[in-house]
Design brief:
Length: about 270
């Protein structure tokens, strides 16, 4: 059974760490294309099966209780990477990591985050936490508002990922301490031609402005999509038009170029 094999191999990969790697997809300003942050995305290089897609191993990890360990591993890698870039004098941008419902339920998330940041001497403002709407709706997590308040009071930023896909009540936007909404690619894909998607996207952007929330549009792949979003006041994007997820070394080259272009213009 492939699933069972993959699950056992994933346990081993997590214990060793060598097959797992964090890729980073940068986020950009819509007006001038400048980098503003990046999302940490877990990749698994299997020795026999090659690259195993997250869509295959993440659901398995969730079902079999490995998500917290995987999530902690990604946090540790991301913070270590921030420290390494800072040590090289690069202009470091916030890294956003995804949190699962199980990570929120387990009481040691905040202490793990803070101790890891302290260990590497990385300021809290450089780590962002992404929660999907499904995590907000997960009954196991209960009322997560106090936990999010506490994390935010430490200086961590919080974003709602895949916004618009969770069948949730908009009321939580008023109640929860959040900084950003990530508008799901589902609504971006057919822009600007699909009138329903255009209406939904315009409404979300207008609502976010009223609530003083920043919006990152996900999955932006065409100039037309970019122009539509720019005209409606969206400021930040993440998508193949700007960058694909790539290893830290590739992102580092672009961070260095950004530093060099600043010096060459000064």
């Amino acid at each position: 059974d492939r699933q069972l094999i993959i699950l056992n191999d994933l346990r081993q990969a997590l214990a060793q760490g060598s097959q797992l790697e964090v890729y980073y997809q940068t986020q950009h300003r819509l007006d001038d294309g400048g980098m503003v942050g990046m999302e940490a995305l877990l990749r698994w290089h299997h020795p026999e099966h090659g690259m195993i897609p997250p869509s295959e191993f993440i659901p398995l990890a969730e079902r079999h209780g490995l998500m917290s360990a995987l999530g902690s591993w990604v946090i540790d890698q991301a913070v270590a990477q921030l420290a390494a870039w800072r040590g090289q004098g690069l202009d470091v941008l916030p890294i956003w990591v995804n949190l699962s419902a199980l990570q929120l339920i387990q009481g040691d998330l905040e202490s793990h985050l803070i101790s890891t940041l302290n260990q590497y001497r990385v300021p809290t403002r450089l780590l962002g936490l992404e929660l999907t709407e499904s995590v907000l709706l997960d009954e196991r997590a209960g009322d997560i508002s106090p936990r999010l308040e506490s994390l935010r009071s430490r200086g961590l930023q919080i974003a709602i990922d895949d916004f618009g896909t969770g069948y949730s009540s908009m009321a939580y936007l008023k109640r929860l301490p959040i900084d950003k909404l990530k508008l799901d690619r589902e609504f971006i894909r057919a822009l600007p031609h699909d009138p329903a998607d255009a209406a939904i996207t315009s409404a979300v952007l207008a609502m976010a402005q009223g609530l003083h929330l920043d919006v990152i549009a996900e999955g932006v792949e065409t100039i037309e999509q970019r122009d539509f979003l720019l005209a409606r006041g969206c400021r930040h994007v993440q998508g193949y038009l700007y960058a694909r997820p790539e290893p830290a070394g590739e992102v580092e080259i672009r961070l260095r170029q950004a530093v060099e272009s600043v010096y060459s213009h000064s």
